[in-house]
Amino acid sequence: FVPGLFNVPQATPVAVFKLSNDFKEDANPKKVNLGVGAYRTDEGQPWVLPVVKKVEKIIVADNSLNHEYLAILGLPEFRSSASKIALGEDSPAIQENRVGAVQCLGGTGALKMGAEFLRRWYNGNDNTKTPVYVSAPTWENHNAVFANAGFEDVRPYKYWDAEKRGLDLDGFLGDLESAPKHSIFVLHACAHNPTGTDPTHVEWMQVAEVMKRRKLFVFFDSAYQGFASGCLDKDAWAVRYFVTQGFEMFCAQSFSKNFGLYNERVGNLTIVARDSDNLKRVLSQMEKIVRVTWSNPPSQGARLVAITLNTPELFAEWKDNVKTMADRVLLMRASLQAKLQALETPGTWDHITQQIGMFSFTGLNPKQVEYMIKERSIYLMASGRINMCGLTTKNIDYVAESIHETVVNVQ
Amino acid sequence: MITECHPCNISGCSWWSEVQMGPPDPILGVSEAYKRDTNPKKINLGVGAYRDDQGKPYVLSCVRKAEAQIAAKKLDKEYLAIGGLGDFTKACAKLALGDDNEVIKSGRNITVQTISGTGSLRIGANFLSRFHTEARDVYLPKPSWGNHTPIFRDAGMQLKAYTYYDPKTCGFDFQGALNDISKIPEKSVIMLHACAHNPTGVDPRPEQWKEIADLVKKRNLLVFFDMAYQGFASGDIDRDAWAVRYFIEQGHNIVLSQSFAKNMGLYGERVGGFTVVCKDAEEAKRVESQLKILIRPIYSNPPMNGARIAATILNTPDLYKEWLGEVHGMANRIITMRELLVANLKKEGSTRNWKHVIDQIGMFCFTGLKPEQVERLTKEFSIYMTKDGRISMAGVTSGNVGYLAQGIHAVTK
């Protein structure tokens, strides 16, 4: 007697985690992990931000704090300060009381909540046929988040031009023009994952014009604010521009990378609505979705972020920590490009310094990627995506030489 | 359905014009209403969160110690695996199934870390919805935790019920339950509360559990245990897990949700586990791979903080011992409050039979109060509870039990 669970097939493992596993098992002392998207110091170590350590001590010392449930939508001081980070302190939308937020489990959780809400309430009720557009390529989990929320039609919009190694603006605008009305578009606020290629301001303005005219829904994914340029405001330019253009929109924020709080699952779904009445009703329905998914969000990470953002000296220190991370990435970009140029590696390598954020789309093809992994023990995604944070002053020569050897020997 | 006006730059026009205002959550909404009340005598008997005898939240001493130990280790904040912290999930399974359980030894369970009990139930519901395609019906006891129904429904399952609570006795309707269970179609999912039934506080006795296990086996049902109060019911971890362990012994391959919100006071840290007992280790691997596929598009991987605290407590002998003592203490305070409440009701002159208040077990008491009486209690006395007459005994203190008895007597005399 064994009821139930027959026919549960083995699922294929998530690629990025398999890569990390394979790296772990590799015995080559020269191995380099350019896979998973987490910051590393120049010693190749994870980095708990100094400001985070400070705030953790504050929390431990505060006997008035306990482990009680947060409200369904999360910690209020976290939600409001997180939204301010995205939209700017003096955002007119905030002043007009039409900005709200849901504290979620990381950026993924924020995307999930937004997706579930849209499926239930956008473009009709439970309209699972509304097309959801994600960039080609995009973070692989985008597809699953929206599909699992019930959307039947998740499709790519043109984004990356492999030949010129940059943004396919015409393709992007073309897809915006031909998308069915009310389609949902998932836009990367900055530091596009995996390509590291962002639209310029002028290009964003063109995107916004089409989206407004064609009544398309704006859903920003902001996982790297601060991490791209080192400046929070600069990295939020696109999000804020769209707000000035009057869009009602969602912005899924992650504090995994810019706070280094990966495993505390700190995210925020910022909602910009037409007015406070619409906002109120939206939030009330968000509560229903939260309640059947996780009831209420975890408190530790949100507390950390809230205390930091709401305490001037800590806020300043955080911005500094963020700049430290962004600067190291910029340094590695410059370094890698310089070395490849010095080696006279075939091809152009400007894209390495033109791209922004944690990732770089090297342009290596799958065969070349396989060579890098098998012959050089350098682990990167099949797409040719590398995590710049995996580079250090100690391994960058080996990586540059390896890329050179790979490009020369493998076509 | 969508209006043709465009949201941008046209005042008043919104994507969300048709979005209705959602009603307040029937359980969590009670606390929110309580917070707004300015009456100094107000009592919150709504949500199941433990309070000490001063009515204050209680951070367990073993939790504080674990936190100090963890802080000293200076750990990093790297992502956990999708299935969570290994030290936690192993200990979580052992706690439920017992250290020497054959299931764990043979590796035929898969236990993943979840976002407390709700997250565990949701993952379970999603898993059954996707893979238990033989039957779409989940049978809940009547009544059950209010959030069970929307969780399973949202996951695409259908909800049915089996008789459980007897309002005449304020106890367990054993025959009624057996009757209903005997008619449940084969392969349906049956939800059982492992201990400290929520909301009634009414648990089957061991002999009754044995008969239920037998009948469930005959009916070939898939058992989903919800264990949110291990330790809280009797004060004894093993006693509270008896039913779960018995069913497994009898050959049921159950699925199990666990929460550490109450028994470790880790409410807001969201610590829970979901276990599937499989037929062998190979099946467990397949199931694990599919659970990961379900989890990733919801939140990628679970939060570290609470799981780390729980793991530290469960895996450090003197902290574990201290924890057992504290859980026992919390359970005892609740038992004392039950006795005090009944004594005070008698003192008020109530002639009703309040024996069930003492017979029921765990955090909650199903008072037997009707919605109108509950409403009066809230409006006239600022005593907050859920509409079904459920009160959280954890919210009762020696300081407020007199007032509570007054109120209950006033609306029931």
Automatic annotation (TrEMBL), chain A:
<dbReference type="GO" id="GO:0004069">
    <property type="term" value="F:L-aspartate:2-oxoglutarate aminotransferase activity"/>
</dbReference>
<dbReference type="InterPro" id="IPR004839">
    <property type="entry name" value="Aminotransferase_I/II_large"/>
</dbReference>
<keyword id="KW-0028">Amino-acid biosynthesis</keyword>
<dbReference type="GO" id="GO:0005829">
    <property type="term" value="C:cytosol"/>
</dbReference>
<keyword id="KW-0963">Cytoplasm</keyword>
<dbReference type="InterPro" id="IPR004838">
    <property type="entry name" value="NHTrfase_class1_PyrdxlP-BS"/>
</dbReference>
<dbReference type="InterPro" id="IPR015421">
    <property type="entry name" value="PyrdxlP-dep_Trfase_major"/>
</dbReference>
<feature type="domain" description="Aminotransferase class I/classII large">
    <location>
        <begin position="30"/>
        <end position="403"/>
    </location>
</feature>
<dbReference type="InterPro" id="IPR015424">
    <property type="entry name" value="PyrdxlP-dep_Trfase"/>
</dbReference>
<protein>
    <recommendedName>
        <fullName>Aspartate aminotransferase</fullName>
        <ecNumber>2.6.1.1</ecNumber>
    </recommendedName>
</protein>
<keyword id="KW-0808">Transferase</keyword>
<dbReference type="InterPro" id="IPR000796">
    <property type="entry name" value="Asp_trans"/>
</dbReference>
<dbReference type="GO" id="GO:0006532">
    <property type="term" value="P:aspartate biosynthetic process"/>
</dbReference>
<dbReference type="Pfam" id="PF00155">
    <property type="entry name" value="Aminotran_1_2"/>
</dbReference>
<keyword id="KW-0663">Pyridoxal phosphate</keyword>
<dbReference type="GO" id="GO:0047801">
    <property type="term" value="F:L-cysteine transaminase activity"/>
</dbReference>
<dbReference type="GO" id="GO:0030170">
    <property type="term" value="F:pyridoxal phosphate binding"/>
</dbReference>
<comment type="similarity">
    <text>Belongs to the class-I pyridoxal-phosphate-dependent aminotransferase family.</text>
</comment>
<dbReference type="InterPro" id="IPR015422">
    <property type="entry name" value="PyrdxlP-dep_Trfase_small"/>
</dbReference>
<keyword id="KW-0032">Aminotransferase</keyword>
<comment type="subunit">
    <text>Homodimer.</text>
</comment>
TrEMBL record, chain B:
<feature type="domain" description="Aminotransferase class I/classII large">
    <location>
        <begin position="41"/>
        <end position="408"/>
    </location>
</feature>
<dbReference type="InterPro" id="IPR015421">
    <property type="entry name" value="PyrdxlP-dep_Trfase_major"/>
</dbReference>
<dbReference type="InterPro" id="IPR000796">
    <property type="entry name" value="Asp_trans"/>
</dbReference>
<dbReference type="GO" id="GO:0004069">
    <property type="term" value="F:L-aspartate:2-oxoglutarate aminotransferase activity"/>
</dbReference>
<dbReference type="InterPro" id="IPR004838">
    <property type="entry name" value="NHTrfase_class1_PyrdxlP-BS"/>
</dbReference>
<dbReference type="InterPro" id="IPR015422">
    <property type="entry name" value="PyrdxlP-dep_Trfase_small"/>
</dbReference>
<keyword id="KW-0808">Transferase</keyword>
<dbReference type="GO" id="GO:0006533">
    <property type="term" value="P:L-aspartate catabolic process"/>
</dbReference>
<dbReference type="Pfam" id="PF00155">
    <property type="entry name" value="Aminotran_1_2"/>
</dbReference>
<keyword id="KW-0663">Pyridoxal phosphate</keyword>
<comment type="subunit">
    <text>Homodimer.</text>
</comment>
<dbReference type="GO" id="GO:0005759">
    <property type="term" value="C:mitochondrial matrix"/>
</dbReference>
<keyword id="KW-0032">Aminotransferase</keyword>
<dbReference type="InterPro" id="IPR004839">
    <property type="entry name" value="Aminotransferase_I/II_large"/>
</dbReference>
<comment type="similarity">
    <text>Belongs to the class-I pyridoxal-phosphate-dependent aminotransferase family.</text>
</comment>
<keyword id="KW-0496">Mitochondrion</keyword>
<protein>
    <recommendedName>
        <fullName>Aspartate aminotransferase</fullName>
        <ecNumber>2.6.1.1</ecNumber>
    </recommendedName>
</protein>
<dbReference type="GO" id="GO:0030170">
    <property type="term" value="F:pyridoxal phosphate binding"/>
</dbReference>
<dbReference type="InterPro" id="IPR015424">
    <property type="entry name" value="PyrdxlP-dep_Trfase"/>
</dbReference>
